[in-house]
Amino acid sequence: MSTQVCIIGAGPAGLLLGQLLHDIGIGTVILERASLDHVLSRVRAGVLEQGTVKLLTSAGVGGRLHAEGLVHEGFAITGDDDIHRIDLAHLTGGKWVTVYGQTEVTRDLVDRRADTGGVTHYEAESVELHEFDSDTPYVTCRIEGEEVRIDCRFIAGCDGFHGASRRSVPEDAIRTFEKVYPFGWLGILADVPPVSHELIYASHSRGFALCSMRSKIRSRYYIQCNAGDSIDAWSDTQFWTELRRRLPPEIAETMITGPSFEKSIAPLRSFVAEPMRFGNLFLVGDAAHIVPPTGAKGLNLAASDVHYLFEGLRGHFLERDNHLLDAYSARALDRVWKAVRFSWWMTTMLHRFPEQAPFEARILETELAYTLQSESAKMSLAENYVGLPY
Ligand code: APR
Ligand code: PHB
To answer: How confident is the model at residue 100 (pLDDT cuts 50, 70, 90)?
Structure first.
C-alpha cells in the first residue's frame, strides 16, 4: 500500500489534518490503534478558539459546531466568596470562544472522513515508523491480523502523548521539557443544567474547581484532587458536596446536582518536545506537547499545529515549495510555548499547591488579586484565553 502522507492517530489532530489534505487531493491513510467506539467514547475539554472553529469549518465540519456550539463572550473567576467576570469580548476587541465538546469535534471529523472517502484503519496493531530520515519512509502495522506496509512521502505523528511516533525518534535527536503538577482534576459529566451560562474558574482556599458545560442540559464539572486519588474514593455525593464548598454561596446554593454518567481523574503536566520535525516525520498535537487543561489549550494547539503542517504540505505537493514545510517546527513551537506558558500561569495562579511555602502562597494570591484589579493584566489573560494569532 502507498500514500502521500501516512497519519498515525485518529484523534482531532490526525482527523483534521487528514481531512484538509484529502480535500485538496493529497492522499492520506490514517492508522488508529483504538477502535472507533473507543475513540468516540473519550471525554476531553470543550473550549474552541475562533481559529480552531475557522479551521474546522474549512475542513467541512462546521455544521453542527455552528448550530450547537455555545458562543461565550466571558467567564468568571471566583475566590472564597467573590466573583469576577472576565469580559473577553470587551478585553479583546470583540473576540470570543465556543464551547463544544471534543467528543463532538471528533465525531464530526469521523463522519466527514467517511463521507468523503478517506481511509482510516482502526484497531491497527504494532504500528512502527521506518526510515523517516530518508525520502522513502514507510510504516508497518498489523490490520485484521495481516502484516501491512505503507510507503509514503511523509509521516504525520498525530498519536498523542503515549503514541509510537515520538518514541521512534532517536534520543539524541530530541529534547523534552516537562513539569508534573502535584495534583489532578476529578471531572464528571451529568445531565443537569449548568449552574451558570458561562464558565466559572474557582480559586478557593480548599482547592480549584471548574464549572463548565456541554450543552444547556449537560454539565461538566471538575475539582482539583490529590495526584494519587482514585475515582473510587469519590462518590457523587462527595463530589457535589466538595464542588459546592469551593464556590461562593450565592452560586453553590443554585447548583442543580444529579447522577454522574462519566467520572475520571486526569493528571496535570506541561510537556514540550523539540523539534517537531525529524526528517520526514512531523509530530503534531499531543504527540509533541501537553498542557494542563486549565487554559483549555490542548485541542486548540493541535489545531494550530495542523494549520502550520497543512500549509507546509500543501506548498510541497501543490506548489513544489518547501519553505513552509521547513518552517513547520519553528512556527508551531513559537505558538506552543506561548500556550504552555499561559496554561502554566493560569494553573499556578488558580490552584492550591500542597506543602507550599508561605511566601510562594502569598505571591500566588497576589498574582490573582493583581490580575483581577488590573485592566491590562485582564487584557493579557483574555488575549491568551481566546487564542493568540496563528
Ligand atoms: N498507533 C496508532 N494510533 C495511536 C498509537 C499508535 N501507536 N498511539 C496512540 N494512538 C492514537 C490514540 O488512540 C488516539 O486516538 O492516536 C490518537 C491521539 O489522539 P489524542 O491523544 O486525542 O491527540 P491529538 O489528536 O493530538 O488531540 C489533542 O486530544 O487528548 C486530547 O487534551 C488533548 O485536547 C487535546 C487533544
Ligand atoms: C471543559 O469543558 O471540559 C473545560 C473547559 C475549560 C477548561 C478545561 C476544560 O479550561
So the answer is: very high
